[in-house]
# Entry
Amino acid sequence: MTRDDLFNTNANIVQSIGQAIAKHAPKAHVLVIANPVNSTVPIIAETLKKAGVFDPRRIFGVTTLDVVRASTFVSEIKGTDAEKTKVTVVGGHSGVTIIPLLSQTGIKFSQEEIEKLTHRIQYGGDEVVKAKDGLGSATLSMAQAGARFTNSLLEALEGKKGVVEPTYVYSPVAAPDGAAWFSTNVELGVNGVEKIHPLGALSDYEKKLYAEAIPELQKNIKKGEQHVNKA
Ligand SMILES: NC(=O)c1ccc[n+]([C@@H]2O[C@H](COP(=O)([O-])OP(=O)(O)OC[C@H]3O[C@@H](n4cnc5c(N)ncnc54)[C@H](O)[C@@H]3O)[C@@H](O)[C@H]2O)c1
# Structure
């Protein structure tokens, strides 16, 4: 089962939570961790739009775990300290939509290492699902990732400056290519999304990953939007 397969189960749950947020807490900052994040975030957005309370600065898909995994996998093969090994991961939160930007780490990799690491980062979540064999997905690492993002956002809402986390937001970064929701590093502030970081320089391999991610992301986003807007 992939994250996208979870759509059928989770789409209605997420939509009903969106309706409750619109009614009872329209100014809430909404952190969406339920998968498939690529589609559940647009579901929340469309639900809030329908209720007239959509603010793109307050909706976040939690993609922190991809960055946590990327740091862990890189440090495993390079012998670095995972906490200090920063890997930028952009795009979405499933399979080919996850784009690790290993060229921006400052660490040297062979092409074989890049391809193996990229695959492992893209499918790390599915590895866990397979290993648990019907008993669910990542739990402790998901809790850690969720807690890290929540704490960062709370600090930023209280006025701390320079808080940057990766998150899937309503973004201009890939919008010209047709993906309105996209994850990059985002500076958080008192209103939520403060400043969306650009992609930065990509290697040829990363440009290829980006080109593969976009059609899948478009499909995932459309699926979420259509779920809410179906007649
Ligand atoms: N974004 C991430 O990094 C990430 C990582 C891992 C898992 N996940 C996602 O997190 C979600 C939870 O995963 P899990 O492994 O803990 O699943 P789980 O099945 O163990 O737990 C889901 C919980 O939701 C409750 N629930 C079901 N319907 C509900 C409703 N209508 N309202 C409120 N609660 C309801 C269930 O009772 C259960 O306790 C899944 O969508 C999973 O894909 C996200």
The chain has two domains: 4-62+218-229, 65-217.
